[in-house]
Amino acid sequence: MSLHFIKLRKYWYIISLVIILPGLISLAFQGLNKGIDFTGGNIIEISYTKPVAVEKIRNTISSQKLEGSLAVQKIGETGYLIRTPHLTQDQNDKLLEALDKLGKSTILRNESVGAIIGRELTQKAFIALIIASVLMIIYITVRFEFKQGLAAIIALLHDVLVVTGIFSLFRIEIDSAFVAAILTIIGYSINDTIIIFDRIRENMLRRQKGEIIEDVVNKSIWQTLTRSINTVLTVIFILVAMYFLGGSTIKTFILAMLIGVVSGAYSSICNASPLWVDLKRLEKKNS
Length: 287
Hints:
Elements: H1 9-29, E1 33-34, H2 36-39, E2 41-48, H3 54-62, E3 71-75, E4 79-84, H4 89-100, E5 105-113, H5 116-143, H6 146-169, E6 173-174, H7 176-205, H8 213-245, H9 251-286
Parallel strand pairs: 1-6
Antiparallel strand pairs: 2-4, 2-5, 3-4
Helix pairs in contact: 1-6, 5-6, 5-7, 6-7, 6-9, 7-8, 7-9, 8-9
């Protein structure tokens, strides 16, 4: 245990700030690159008598030189859900004509969707985040103590800011799957944090006379480190495979998950427990 995680906590905080600050600046000045789910657009559901390669449909849509984001999702064997920016009647007619040339088809749905769905989705996701945070603080306070709950929520906020900041900085388009990824990341990260806190509680009960809290927490992190690393690596292997083999429709979700899982492992080990130590030291100083 040559590496003392708690004694190096200032460096962990600095690393987090270096990663988060550029993202915060990007979010403040250019925001997120919102996709059709948030900005609105046209939704076309089409069914062919015979299967058509998704790439052919995507290339056909691209040949129409439509500005903005496009998304093609396969439904069943011969159905496809196409999302485009808002189309004029002329653009819509030309696109349907081009799609019909790929094979005999039937238009099941062709409608315009407003941005209000995106606003409702954002609001509900924000409310879900607040409710989840409050419930987690209550749970951790009951099982451990309030300061650990506070440290855990700050670590979760770290993960959310890392993911959203990177997506904003590199102008990666987000859709409704991005919201699902953020909520999934929160659940994953808090699980790892609670396991470390549980070991800290056990070691605090068995603490030897004269053993300082920094050493107890550092020992607890080392005792759970192998489990944390093995868990995150297992998840990363699966996510990487899904990113390259799972198709374009889930890439946003998988990329957000990859960033969030790595950030979650880092924050659970290097941020949550050190933050709790600082809160305990602050309490002792003020008492």
